[in-house]
Write a structure and sequence with these properties.
Blueprint (H helix, E strand, L loop, with lengths): L1 H9 L4 H8 L10 E4 L10 E5 L10 E5 L6 H7 L2 H8 L2 E6 L22 H15 L7 E6 L1 H12 L6 E5 L17 H4 L7 H11 L9 E7 L8 H13 L8 E3 L5 E6 L8 E6 L11 H9 L18 E9 L3 E10 L9 E5 L5 E6 L2 E3 L4 E5 L12 E9 L10 E3 L2 E2 L1 E2 L1
Parallel strand pairs: 3-4, 3-5, 5-6, 6-7, 7-10, 11-20
Antiparallel strand pairs: 1-2, 2-4, 8-9, 9-10, 11-12, 12-17, 13-16, 13-18, 14-17, 15-16, 18-19
Helix pairs in contact: 8-9
């Protein structure tokens, strides 16, 4: 019981913030999230949900998307952009669900930290192999990402199963082995507080010991962390960089350092291109709330599933200063709206306000990544602290949930800082 309370007090306390950061509209497609049972060895009774987009080609890629705690696979599906990106780029997404109290994954037991040792990783790998067999998925394009508990599990899977995964992206995670315990508990306060500090060699040795028989290439790794994270503190960011650069035989001298967004500092190790062996993004001012809007697309770029290079900003299209994409997902009495503003002008924005009129009967009940006032009629959305800077060709995204009286019509016009936008 004490263990459950400690986990609840540390990770569950941040859940509302995490969910707010993750929230986007679910993808609008005929494909549906489906639960799969009997997928293979599953010693801890994990649940598996699968999203297979319409029009998936032969030999599709597979992404495992691992939730935070408390959470579930279906919640991570509806609360992140990975399924919408799968619709666009035609890869399959596996959403595991932890079933223990607190809905956290086992990233601490000796079994979990050893290749084929048991625990949650065995069940997740069974899910991957099920998809490879049933959908003829490409083993050379199997990836994993996750947030918080899922970010920690990403490190575990990349470390213990380098023969299964080709790359990983960890949001708010800790190094492989950092949470290790021997007393059966699932919480390591020293690691969570960023107090476990080791040399690169020591961190790398933990990974190599997890699968000593592995002689092949190591998965690439992308690391994300907010500087103000008080649940899994920011020093874990640097410890992960130490670990994965050592695993890849690299120094900690970056090949590239840049700022793709105003509050991001990105470093690449072992190469300056879009898919280096190790990439790390520190998000200034962010807490335990990643990924926020747009970050999932950077993950897909890093995995090589989009064909895009996030180093080079898109060329601003001709025309007016802004373009708005407005996507609605509705049900009988409510809907969510995902709004993307693209700066198509030649000057950067340091803040923005977007005005539009909601049809009669629509009332906003909650928002994310923007403030929207009033709740009905002619409303104005304004940026929050971390997404006001928008370079030419770049985008900012926000969303809201609303009720309706039967009319889910989209607004007919949008004005950015008083100037009409193109609507797509």
């Amino acid at each position: 019981m004490k263990l459950r309370l400690r986990i609840a007090g540390a990770l569950i306390a941040a859940a509302a913030v995490v969910v707010a950061g993750l929230m986007t509209a679910p993808p609008a497609a005929s494909a549906q999230l489906t639960e799969v049972t009997g997928f293979g060895a599953n010693p801890t009774g994990l649940r598996m949900h699968l999203y297979v987009p319409d029009g998936v080609p032969a030999r599709p890629a597979v992404l495992v998307a691992v939730h935070h705690c408390p959470g579930s696979g279906p919640a991570f599906y509806s609360g992140t952009e990975f399924a919408a990106l799968a619709d666009r780029h035609k890869f399959i997404v596996v959403y595991p669900s932890a079933t223990r109290s607190g809905s956290c994954f086992d990233v601490s037991s000796p079994q979990a930290l050893r290749h084929d040792g048991g625990g949650d990783p065995v069940g997740i790998v069974s899910m991957v192999r099920y998809v490879q067999q049933r959908h003829d998925a490409d083993p050379a394009r199997t990836f994993v990402t996750g947030a918080s508990s899922g970010g920690m599990m990403t490190n575990v899977l990349i470390g213990a199963y380098p023969d299964v995964f080709r790359a990983g992206a960890s949001f708010m995670g800790v190094p492989f082995g950092c949470f290790a315990t021997s007393d059966g508990s699932g919480w390591n306060g020293a690691c969570a507080n960023g107090q476990v500090v080791r040399t690169p060699q020591q961190w790398g040795d933990l990974v190599r010991a997890a699968h000593p028989g592995h002689g092949g290439p190591r998965p690439r790794m992308q690391i994300w962390h907010g500087t103000e994270d008080t649940t899994l503190r920011h020093p874990n960011f640097e410890e992960q960089v130490k670990q994965w650069t050592n695993v890849h035989g690299l120094t900690r001298t970056p090949s590239l350092t840049d700022r793709p967004q105003a509050n991001w500092t990105r470093t690449r190790y072992g190469g300056a291109g879009a898919m280096p062996p190790v990439e790390a993004i520190s998000v200034q001012g962010a807490g335990h709330s990643l990924p926020t809007a747009g970050m999932a697309a950077r993950v897909i770029d890093f995995f090589g599933l989009s064909g895009g290079d996030p180093t080079t900003p898109p060329t601003p299209p001709p025309g007016g200063p802004c373009r708005v994409t407005y996507t609605v997902n509705s049900w009988n009495a409510g809907f969510t709206a995902a709004v993307t503003i693209t700066n198509t002008g030649g000057a950067p924005l340091s803040s923005w306000s977007l005005a539009f009129t909601l049809p009669t009967g629509q009332t906003i009940t909650s928002t994310w990544n923007a403030t929207v006032t009033p709740a009905a009629g002619q409303v104005t959305a304004r940026n929050v602290a971390y997404n006001g800077d928008v370079a030419p060709g770049a985008s900012a995204a926000f969303g809201f949930q609303a009720t309706h009286g039967g009319d889910t019509t989209e607004p007919s016009a949008f004005a950015l800082d008083g100037t009409a936008c193109t609507v797509t």
